[in-house]
């Protein structure tokens, strides 16, 4: 089997011993069959156990291994090494405080997600069976509920970089629309009321970085547009 | 280093479906509840469940929970406890409606009801026609379920200790469990979590095998903790191999593919399941289908894919519309990981370790059990739910779609039981045995201090190889005994192994090493239990004992593991349901 | 809900209002620009008399004032957004905002004076 050399340049920072972050080169020989980036990083971690990153499902569903790969955010487990220019430059998700190496502190991201009340609100008495929902109404949730909270989108959004405490960000807004669009949710007024300030939604400038990087091919910009339309219909 | 103590009414270890269903119950009842999870909760492995949650809602045809019960008992190859199976199947509809009310975005029928698809081993009228009983949210049911539960827990203000790793249980002087020790992954801080009820919901341990559908995090932490605490684990020989993991990668392809009309073919294009299960073909139980695939491959009718022998799963005949609406996630996974678009080409698949039927024995309320002098004893203060528990509803073979049912029904049941017990004062604060705190830190200290031994990677790789070759789909005493001996030798080496990262901040290597201790405990429990059960039943398929032995082996194996060696005991299977007639063992024909 | 941000310096006091102000003001400015362009195209030789006649119409004065208001509103929404994005020190931002508001008031006064002094 033919082998190939894979070269990497990876962001390193351990607060216990590093004064400042630096880039470290790694390389290894491996069969030239296709490999996922996560497999490659796991391989490097056997060489250097101090290399630190998050991972869990390794199939693009849990959202743990979001990172900046050759300048673009993505999930390591769903990125084919063969499609990447070498040396492969890997950095932590931009815009978040770095805890160590590729691990970032996502507190602000989760706070924004929580701020939109990401749960179904319905104050009517639940029936003994399911609440009915037509396939057409259910289809409105497609492209929304699949979000895995990997933060690839929000961390590629300049508006989120500048105002992470006030702009909800693409992921949070995608979830906000997922509940606004749900025929079973009846808190639409309250949800919209909480989003009509100048920051939460309106800091989105529709540059669509989020759409470009979403590993699940979701479209937060479109969802934000829908929220804006709903807000306008309410306001005029 | 001073050790902080955190005190709660109830502590749940694990933020997957079962853990968060239990925590939701408790948080909503106003109890001080904490969830300790080594990953952010929505990264738990429940998120990977695809096909659905099996429940007799009757949305596609008239249905009855008793049919579900019959299928589950039969699927378990008659070593599932019938009272618990009855409870699960009967409670499932209410539990699933609750999920729907919480907002879970189920797929819908034309009339607006929850959509249900056919899955393997399902029938109506006690073994009659194929049923469609698995409620689905496209092929992302686990994802939808886990996010819904996390969201409801946010609303209920459950306290999450995210990225905290549970080290060991703290035994009380009363012989029960008074909480546990855990480590904050981000800072390395070790803390004592004191609680009147500790609910283990740590999931499976599929990472003991080389080829697995399981996430990296499925390392059997709860099972390891219970074994170290001197309590038993049950039916650990029973490991489900999912028939359809993507060849060479291990990524799961849902049984829902076959439920929607897909089927398996060998290299000759033959739909070979017609030979093995003439009646239900590709929708036979998972143990049956996995074995059939293994035989096809062994007899030279497999295809080579990704460097391994495989068979092909064909779903192109369903058409692009069905695939895109019902199986969109599968299409995405197949394109990414198998380089095939299933709308056009078949997916190469191979049986892959998927689910641990065994685990911590519990009552139907989730109370963990031990066995003293042939009597069950409830361990005060300890509960277990989900895959780490063995209630047992899955027996020797779990039905597809029953794992999510198990999580929800028993997560809820344990929550309700703890809630009531705390209110009635049945769960007193136990006295912490201080020596236990030091005991719980022995492992961390060992990994912190070992600096000269061999690498833990070597040991982990060898462990997986042994399990894969000697304790896989087909088993034989002549390979298993040497396999166990190798594991014992490996266990001894593990005590001197080392890690090369001794930092405190987000030291994932240390976590992996601590997880390896648990994988080792699970592997040894599996090995000894598998050697002990000298018959073939469900997923436990022995070439040296190819037949069922209903006279001697309708019983649970119990494994106790202490330092250095394990021992086996047994528990009777409960064959007496609460309200219906018992189902008697008979040959499982599909 | 947790997120609601109160601001006293954004023009419309709500995100929707600001968003709407920017769109409506853009339409006003576009209309004004089209009118002026058409005026120049249809009048190849514009001299002072013609120009001052045009601006003697009250409608034209009001239209011009409206355009000036639209311009200032539009600019304020934009500048406010940029300042809140990039200027993270409240005192500096407040000071700069005050200066710009003064400048805008001056522009407005000057504009009115110009329009009604023709």
Distance between the termini of chain B: 60 Å
Q: How many structurally independent domains of chain C?
A: 1
Please report which band the strand proportion of chain B falls in: under 5%, 5-15%, 15-25%, 25-35%, 35-45% or over 45%. 15-25%
Total beta strand runs of chain C: 0
The fraction of residues assigned to DSSP E strands of chain C is under 5%
CATH superfamily of chain C: Fumarate reductase/succinate dehydrogenase, transmembrane subunit
Count of separate DSSP helical elements of chain C: 4
Radius of gyration of chain C: 18 Å
Largest sheet of chain B: 8 strands, mixed
What is the CATH C level class of chain C, in words? Mainly Alpha
Assign a percent range to the helix content of chain C: over 70%
Give the overall shape of chain C, derived from the CA principal axes. elongated
Q: Helix proportion of residues of chain B, in percent?
A: 25-40%
Verbal overview:
- The complex is a heterotrimer of chains A (236), B (590) and C (118).
- Chain A is of the alpha+beta class and 236 residues long.
- Chain A has 2 domains: 3-104, Beta-grasp domain (Ubiquitin-like (UB roll), Roll), CATH 3.10.20; 107-235, Fumarate Reductase Iron-sulfur Protein, Chain B, domain 2 (Orthogonal Bundle).
- Chain A is built from 8 helices and 7 strands; from the N terminus they run E-E-H-E-E-E-E-E-H-H-H-H-H-H-H.
- Chain A has helices spanning 37-47, 107-115, 135-139, 158-162, 169-180, 188-193, 209-213, 220-235; strands at 3-12, 22-31, 66-69, 72-75, 88-91, 98-100, 103-104.
- In chain A, the strands form 2 sheets. A 5-stranded mixed beta sheet of chain A has the order 2-1-5-3-4, with no helix packed on it. Chain A has a two-stranded antiparallel ribbon with strand order 6-7.
- In chain A, a hairpin with a 2-residue loop joins strand 3 and strand 4 (72-75).
- In chain A, helix 2 runs parallel beside helix 5 (169-180) and helix 5 (169-180) packs across helix 8.
- The termini of chain A are far apart.
- The mean pLDDT of chain A is 96.
- In chain B, helix 1 runs parallel beside helix 4, helix 5 (221-228) packs across helix 16 and helix 14 (456-470) packs antiparallel against helix 15 (477-494).
- Chain B is built from 16 helices and 23 strands.
- Chain C has one domain: Fumarate reductase/succinate dehydrogenase, transmembrane subunit (3 helical TM bundles of succinate and fumarate reductases).
- The mean pLDDT of chain C is 91.
- Helix content of chain C is 79%, strand content 0%.
- Chains in contact: A-B, A-C.
- At the A-B interface, loops of A face helix 3, helix 4 and helix 10 of B.
């Amino acid at each position: 089997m033919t082998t190939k050399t894979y070269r990497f340049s990876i962001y390193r920072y351990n607060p216990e011993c590093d004064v400042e972050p630096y880039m470290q080169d790694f390389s290894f020989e491996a069969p030239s069959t296709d490999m996922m980036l996560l497999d490659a990083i796991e391989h490097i971690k056997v060489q250097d156990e101090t290399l630190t990153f998050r991972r869990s499902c390794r199939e693009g569903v849990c959202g743990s291994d979001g990172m900046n790969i050759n300048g673009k955010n993505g999930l390591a487990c769903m990125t084919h090494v063969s499609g990447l220019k070498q040396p492969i430059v890997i950095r932590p998700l931009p815009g978040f405080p770095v805890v160590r190496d590729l691990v970032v502190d996502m507190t602000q991201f989760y706070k924004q997600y929580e701020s939109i009340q990401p749960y179904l609100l319905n104050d009517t008495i639940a029936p003994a069976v399911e609440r009915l929902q037509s396939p057409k109404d259910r289809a409105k949730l497609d492209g929304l509920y699949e979000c895995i909270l990997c933060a690839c989108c929000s961390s590629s959004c300049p508006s989120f970089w500048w105002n992470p405490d006030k702009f909800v960000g693409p992921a949070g807004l995608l979830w906000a629309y997922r509940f606004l669009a749900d025929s079973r949710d009846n808190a639409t007024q309250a949800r919209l009321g909480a989003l009509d300030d100048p920051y939460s939604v309106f800091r989105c400038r529709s540059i669509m970085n989020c759409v470009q990087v979403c590993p699940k091919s979701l479209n937060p910009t479109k969802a934000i547009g829908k929220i804006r339309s709903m807000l306008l219909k309410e306001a005029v | 280093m001073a050790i902080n103590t955190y005190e709660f009414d109830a502590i749940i270890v694990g933020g997957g479906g079962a853990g968060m269903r239990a925590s939701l119950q408790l948080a909503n009842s106003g109890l001080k509840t904490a969830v300790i999870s080594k990953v952010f909760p929505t990264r738990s492995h429940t998120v990977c469940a695809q096909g659905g949650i099996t429940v007799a809602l009757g949305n596609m045809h008239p249905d009855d929970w008793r049919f579900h019960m019959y299928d589950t008992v039969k699927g378990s190859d008659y070593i599932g406890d019938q009272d618990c199976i009855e409870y699960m199947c009967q409670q499932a509809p209410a539990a699933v409606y609750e999920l729907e009310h919480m907002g879970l975005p189920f797929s819908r029928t034309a009339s607006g009801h929850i959509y249900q698809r056919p899955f393997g081993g399902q029938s109506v009228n006690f073994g009659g026609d194929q049923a469609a009983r698995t409620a689905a949210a496209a092929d992302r049911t686990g994802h939808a379920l886990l996010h819904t539960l996390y969201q409801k827990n946010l609303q209920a203000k459950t306290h999450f200790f995210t990225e905290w790793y549970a080290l060991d249980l703290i035994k009380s002087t009363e012989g029960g469990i008074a909480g546990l020790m855990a480590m904050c992954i981000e800072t390395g801080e070790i803390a004592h979590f004191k609680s009147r009820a500790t609910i283990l919901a740590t999931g499976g341990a599929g990472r003991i095998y080389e080829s697995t559908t399981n996430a990296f995090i499925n390392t059997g932490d709860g099972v390891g903790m219970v074994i170290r605490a001197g309590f038993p684990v049950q039916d650990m020989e029973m490991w489900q191999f999912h028939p359809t993991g993507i060849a060479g990668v291990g990524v799961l392809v849902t049984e829902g593919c076959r439920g929607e009309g897909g089927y398996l073919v060998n290299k000759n294009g033959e739909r070979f399941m017609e030979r093995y299960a003439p009646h239900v073909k590709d929708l036979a139980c998972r143990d049956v289908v996995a074995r059939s695939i293994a035989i096809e491959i062994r007899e030279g009718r497999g295809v080579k894919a990704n460097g391994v022998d495989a068979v092909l799963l064909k779903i192109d005949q369903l058409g692009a519309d069905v695939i895109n609406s019902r199986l969109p996630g599968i299409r995405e996974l197949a394109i990414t990981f198998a380089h095939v678009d299933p709308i056009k080409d078949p997916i190469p698949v191979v049986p892959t370790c998927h689910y641990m039927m065994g685990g911590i024995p519990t009552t139907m309320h989730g109370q963990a059990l031990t066995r003293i002098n042939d009597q069950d004893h409830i361990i005060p203060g300890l509960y277990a739910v989900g895959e780490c528990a063995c209630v047992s509803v899955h027996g020797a073979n779990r039905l597809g779609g029953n794992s999510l049912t198990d999580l929800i029904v028993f997560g809820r049941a344990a929550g309700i039981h703890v809630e009531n017990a705390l209110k009635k004062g049945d769960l007193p604060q136990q006295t912490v045995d201080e020596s236990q705190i030091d005991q719980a830190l022995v492992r961390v200290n060992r990994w912190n201090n070992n600096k000269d031994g061999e690498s833990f990677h070597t040991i982990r790789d060898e462990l997986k190889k042994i399990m894969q070759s000697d304790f896989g789909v087909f088993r034989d005493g002549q390979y298993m005994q040497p396999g166990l001996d190798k594991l014992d030798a490996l266990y001894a080496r593990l005590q001197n192994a080392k890690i090369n990262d001794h930092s405190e901040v987000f030291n994932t290597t240390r976590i992996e090493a601590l997880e390896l201790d648990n994988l080792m405990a699970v592997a040894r429990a599996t090995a000894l239990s598998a050697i002990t059960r000298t018959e073939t039943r469900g997923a436990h398929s022995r070439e040296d004992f190819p037949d069922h032995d209903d006279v001697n082996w309708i019983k649970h194996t119990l494994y106790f593991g202490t330092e250095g060696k394990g021992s086996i005991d047994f528990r009777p299977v409960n064959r007496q349901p609460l309200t219906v007639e018992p189902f008697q063992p008979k040959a499982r024909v599909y | 809900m947790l997120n609601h941000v109160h601001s006293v310096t954004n023009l419309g006091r709500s995100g929707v209002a600001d968003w709407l102000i920017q769109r409506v003001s853009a339409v006003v400015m576009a209309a004004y620009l089209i009118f002026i362009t058409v005026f120049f195209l249809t009048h190849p030789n514009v001299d002072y008399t013609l120009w001052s006649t045009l601006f003697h119409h009250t409608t034209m004065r009001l239209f011009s004032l409206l355009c000036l208001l639209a311009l200032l509103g539009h600019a304020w929404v934009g500048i406010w957004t940029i300042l809140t994005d990039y200027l993270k020190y409240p005192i500096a931002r407040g000071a700069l905002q005050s200066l710009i508001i003064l400048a805008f008031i001056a522009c407005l006064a000057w504009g009115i004076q110009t329009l009604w002094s023709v």
